[in-house]
Amino acid sequence: MTSLESILAGKYPAKAHARRVAEGLQSRGHGSHGIIYLEAQKTRLIEDNDEAMPFRQRRPFFYLSGCLLPDSYLIYNIDLDELTLFIPPADPEAVIWSGLPMSAVEAQKRYDVDCVLPTPEVNAALSLIAENNAGKAVAFVIGDQVSDSTRFQGFVEVNTSSLQSVIGNCRVVKDEYEVALLRKANDISAKAHVAAIKASKSATNEREIEGAFIATCIAHGAREQAYHPIVACGENGATLHYGKNDDSLVDATTKQRKASVLIDAGGEYSTYCADITRVFPLGGKFRPEVRQIYELVLQMQMECIEMLKEGIQWEDVHAHAHSVAIKGLKNLGILRGPDNELLEKRISVAFFPHGLGHYLGMDTHDTGGNPNYEDEDTMFKYLRVRGHLPAGSVITVEPGIYFCRFIIEPFLNSDETNAYINTDVLERYWSVGGVRIEDNIHITTNGFENLTTAPKTIEEVESLAL
């Protein structure tokens, strides 16, 4: 087995995560007497239908269990360092339709827990813990994720305000197993991106490219998508979260194939996400304007990635991306004026309006980023991560340059900013739409590790698109 396969052959480190969360609670001034109580996502039926809704496990529950079973519970006894998983017992009527569920013996072998019990025993277990702690135990729960039938009699307090944020902060730093899951999600997604590029050669619509991506993910073990894929051809790429994915790859006026496709898509592997963006040409070769913008965005990304290491201030990396963008757009003749003035006036925000990246893990926009969307500085307002990056975190680096009339025209209509943009040169670039390049980066003590293997050099991408 490879190193990746050998890591994933082990158990998801639920017990270590439970200890980490308990330490996080204690660091906030909470005592060591108590429990962490979490519930899995419930099975819910589709409205007006007898079929279950698509299942997505609650992330806090998975973080402390590694369990994807619905309708389950867990208790971590902080005093005893004991993690107990409660799973639904067999229902004879359900077995007829769905087969036998996982048994307690099977669950004990699969999950990193001390004990597995049936779900009807959860209240008795809670009562026993309260009794043994003589009224000193606190139950830490997520307030809106507790069943009405759950009982906490005998606990001195049911704390609903602390657990979710502590888990969110703990999730920022990934252990070896979590990084392996993210790498696996990236490896599968890289295959899917290659398949999408190859499919574009015969495709006539964005949805055919999306279909190739999703099919490849499923075939390699990533049945779920980390998010709804973005497949945007031509000017559709100027919409940051474009999601229609149903436009023709042929221009209705010229009857020619559009210049390029932006695909932002990632598979999900055992709840862990990939988030990758690539741009590729339709027809095998980038048109001159698209190539120029692609080269600029790739330079922005590569320089920012090289800055990454433990403790780096994320705002500094984001600001550097804007500095590179300004120089590049000036070289193309789109912007004019002194670099420092362009930066001070935030002119580059017209072309790069979003944050440089976000934490990645069980959620695409993962927890712990501490954004400040009230920031009045337009260059930093949409940053999803603020502050210093810790070793063990995984973050996306996804600079982009976009030609979106809705965003750029206010700059053109303002007497304060219109002189900085050359509209004659800009006219040639509207058809580019947008270029974004995104990789998933693991921060280490000495630097970084790029988990994303999808091709991104111009030569690699063009060779696949030919």
Automatic annotation (TrEMBL):
Residues 12-147 form the Aminopeptidase P N-terminal domain. GO terms for molecular function: manganese ion binding; metalloaminopeptidase activity. One of its GO terms (biological process) is proteolysis. It catalyses: Release of any N-terminal amino acid, including proline, that is linked to proline, even from a dipeptide or tripeptide. Keywords: Aminopeptidase, Hydrolase, Manganese, Metal-binding, Metalloprotease, Protease. Its EC number is 3.4.11.9. Pfam families: AMP_N (PF05195), Peptidase_M24 (PF00557). It comes from the Eukaryota. It is an enzyme of class 3 (hydrolase). Its cofactor is Mn(2+). InterPro entries: Aminopep_P_N, Creatin/AminoP/Spt16_N, Creatinase/aminopeptidase-like, Pept_M24, X-Pro_dipept-like. Catalyzes the removal of a penultimate prolyl residue from the N-termini of peptides. Belongs to the peptidase M24B family. PANTHER family: XAA-PRO AMINOPEPTIDASE 3, XAA-PRO DIPEPTIDASE. This is Probable Xaa-Pro aminopeptidase PEPP. It comes from Aspergillus homomorphus (strain CBS 101889). The lineage of its organism: Eukaryota, Fungi, Dikarya, Ascomycota, Pezizomycotina.
